[in-house]
Structure formats: structure tokens, C-alpha cells
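Notes to self after the call with IL:
- keep both proteins in one doc
- input above output, always
- annotate only the second one for now

Protein 1:
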Amino acid sequence: MNHYALIAAGGSGMRMQSPVPKQFLLLNGKPVLMHTIEKFIAADSQIKIIVVLPDVEIAEWKKLCTSFSFTVAHLIVAGGASRFQSVKNGLEMIEDENSIVAIHDGVRPLATVELIRKCFIESANSGNAVPVIPLKESLRKKENENSVAVDRNNFHSVQTPQCFLAAEIKRAYSIAENDSFADDASVCENAGMKIHLTDGEETNIKITTPFDIALAELILRKQKTL
């Protein structure tokens, strides 16, 4: 089966308190998005990469690729008004419905090669693979003016890459967008698919704040020494 990586890179710099979009911020001297793309190429040298960007940021991304001599082959697709629409635009570029698609956040540059490969393998066996990690903190649920404790063992934190058979994920995204869709797994679940969970990685963080950049630099340096 052919492999695709659909990288959704439509974030802004609002929570980062930066005018630069999060995916373009420098991480160890190179834009975050470049690190993300390189992880997928390292996992599968034949993978086909689709990068979905806001239309207004495509020109800047091309300039960055030139400035950093970034030559990894990838298709650039203009995103939509929401993540759902952006992913849908990316999926429309995939003609091979017998392939497997990994949908990944552009600002998760630390997913390991091992995690990426595992998600592809498990999705080939089970139809899909969604990485999750257990929660460490206690949880309380708000109920009107009160709150109640809930068992954290019943909940998981969801990560990407989320891998799916191309035909199934394209079918799932053929419906109208719904506010209840939290991620790609929830879109597939809405289409009647059973979601297969797999172990994620604590270091597979999503970069949204200045603290995340500092933490990601430490993790990246450690990964390079292993």
C-alpha cells in the first residue's frame, strides 16, 4: 500500500503571542513545519506528502523553503475556513483509495519514526490507528455551580498522526461539517467506523505556547543523541 502524510498546518501565532504562524517559528534553527515533514520522510522515504496551508501563507512558506534550502518533495494545498475543510481539501488530492493516509498536525514535530511506522502498520491491520496517552492529572467535571471528580482512567489524551484507509477517511469527510468533530477520529466515528487506539508518546507534544517551543528544543536535542 502507498502511504500519504496529510499535514494540516493552519495554526496562527495567537497563543504563541507572535505575529509569525506557529508552524513557521524556528525550532533549533529551522521552521517547525520542516521538522514535521522530515519525520515522515525518515519513516518512509517513498511517502507522498501533502501540506495544507492557509492560502495567504503559501507564498511565505515557499520563501522559507528557498531560504532554508528545503528540498523535500511535497504538494501544497490551500486550506479552508476550518480544520475540517482544510483536511477535506487535502484528501481531495489523493486519488489512490487503496492507500493509507496519516493526518498530522503541522506543529507536532516530535513524533518519532517508530510511532509513525507503528500507526501505519496498525491501520493496515485494523483499518485505522489513533495514538493516545493516559492522563496524569486528576479530573473534575463542572456541573452547574458544582464539580464532581471523574475517573481519569476512562479518558485519554489524543495525538496525531491518525492513520486511516484512504477510501474510508474520504467517505467520512464527504458529509457536512459538524461542530462536534474534535479531530479526524471523531469524523470517522460519526461515519460509523470503530476507532482503534494505540499507544502514543509523551514527547509528541503540540506546539501552541512559548513554553512548548522551549520544551520541544530540549526533546529534539535528546532525540538526536539517541
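Protein 2 (the one to annotate):
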Amino acid sequence: MARGSKYYILHKPKGYLSQFSKEHGKMALSDLVDLQGDVYPVGRLDEYSEGLLLLTNDKSVNYHLLHPSNKHVRCYLVQVEGQVTKKAIKELEAGVTIAAKGEIYNTLPAKVKKTKKPGNIIDADVSAKVTTWLKIELQEGRYRQVRKMTAKVGFPTLRLVRTHVENLELGNIKSGELLQVNKEFFYSKLNLPL
């Protein structure tokens, strides 16, 4: 890749589109960070999700991370409504049937376990009195997949935070913060060929 390649890690807050252009009056990445026009997000988090978003102008990263044959691990902390049962966890781990862009889709097996709310995540207002935090690892990333999966087993997602893509983690980057890293770090943490 050219010498001008740039690599960033952004902690996307809830309420922002994963794009720089504004749409329907909603907040976009351009309201959050000031980057040159050739940088773009790799993958997406929906407007209501938060956490790790990768930004770069290195087009090969997009192919390596998003092509279905490459199956990179993505990890999410998910706060759901209710007290999650062992049965629901087993169903999520085995894969569930959801609708994705008008087609019926069976999700791949996932790793799912109950967890505590991490200390580095700021509390948010949720209306539910009883909630459970789950750690969910996937090797795919269809549109709103995690939300559809938890709803399918009876536990709607209230909050979703992506914490990892492969070994690249959000760590202690605060909501709204942007961190620039070098290519070697970015590629090694994402298990990409240099």
C-alpha cells in the first residue's frame, strides 16, 4: 500500500451513523472526527450500537476483513432485557434462524457467555429493570445480526458494544475518541498478511 496509508481506531458512540456523510439529519462520523476524505470505515455499527470502528484508506483491509470466506472474529458486549437462560445461550451458540435483507439465514455457531458489565463502559439509561450482559463472539457480521439473534431467543438487545475485531481491541479508548496506529500494529492485531 502507498506510504500515505492511514489507520485509526474509533470508539463510536451511540447515535452516530458509521459513515462520514450526513443522512436524514442524523449525526455522522464527520460530527465526531476531522479526517481527510479518503479515509472510510471498515464495516459498520448501526446507529444505536457503539464501540470499536476501524477507519482507513487502505482498501485491502476491507477485503480481508469483510469477505465472508475470511471469517474474522468479532466480539460484542451485549446488554439484553431479562435474565438470560442456559437454553437461550445454547440456542445462540448453535446458531439461530434470522431474516437478513429479506432472506432467511441460519447464523454460524457463536461463542456466548454471561459476563459482568465492564468497568470501562459508562452506564446508559435503560428502561428494563432486569438485564443481563453477554459476551458474544461471531465470525460473521450481517446487518443488525446480534440484535436479531438475541431477539430470536426472547431477549431483546438494549445495548451493544463491539470490543474486538480479531486481536484489535477497544481497550480504554473513551467514547468518541480516535486513536491513530501504524500499519504493522493494525495488520498484526487483525491477523492480516503484510
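Annotation: The chain is about 15% helix and 30% strand. Helices lie at 59-66, 86-94, 145-152, 183-189.
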